[in-house]
Hints:
Layout: E1 5-17, E2 30-41, E3 47-49, H1 60-66, H2 73-78, E4 89-91, E5 110-114, H3 115-122, H4 134-141, E6 145-148, E7 152-155, E8 158-162, E9 171-177, E10 180-184, H5 191-194, H6 198-201, H7 216-226, E11 232-234
Parallel strand pairs: 3-4, 4-5, 5-6, 10-11
Antiparallel strand pairs: 1-2, 2-3, 7-8, 8-9, 9-10
Amino acid sequence: xxxxxxxxxxxxxxxxxxxxxxxxxxxxxxxxxxxxxxxxxxxxxxxxxxxxxxxxxxxxxxxxxxxxxxxxxxxxxxxxxxxxxxxxxxxxxxxxxxxxxxxxxxxxxxxxxxxxxxxxxxxxxxxxxxxxxxxxxxxxxxxxxxxxxxxxxxxxxxxxxxxxxxxxxxxxxxxxxxxxxxxxxxxxxxxxxxxxxxxxxxxxxxxxxxxxxxxxxxxxxxxxxxxxxxxxxxxxxxxxxxxxxxxxxxx
Length: 251
């Protein structure tokens, strides 16, 4: 059985209204989120989940807000003695620009992307300005993309599952680790979405849908189901992982 350790690398950040994460909750509260690329250590392939921002804002204020350092793509990889050309596989949760801006640097990688993400990247709805096809054109022209249509095993111990809560082609990543199955969520959320405070659970709500979603009711149901699929869930923008501490080590 193949097992992996997960290394969160902060490769960007955003400052916005908290309601962008927590639908119908937290509006008017300024909030800073980290943008991650996740290095999956193990096996004979160098594997990333998402690639982050090309030109991250690196400031003392933002690093203090998320509780950890922000890196460029090259700096983050160098922490693990890697370079962009060493990457063999990139698994995309989705293709909003902050998750794929460094794709073109991974000249030797295969990119696993749901077909609906490619469709929206090339022809986005006016409401979804987060798709910018410029960031995937190079790898697409080079024939580096593996187009998937549903749940897929990428390599032994790493599986992609279709969870279209945030985007139509959103894919969560199930990773076998020494401490159990870990899900890197394929929807932009923080821990509060999956484990709401008491004032939300008192309303008989088990989760809070992402602030940006395809359909609020369906997104709610997908998050509920996601909580049954793994031992540990890693929301894509949860600040507590910004320290870079390894995830999945045996306790």
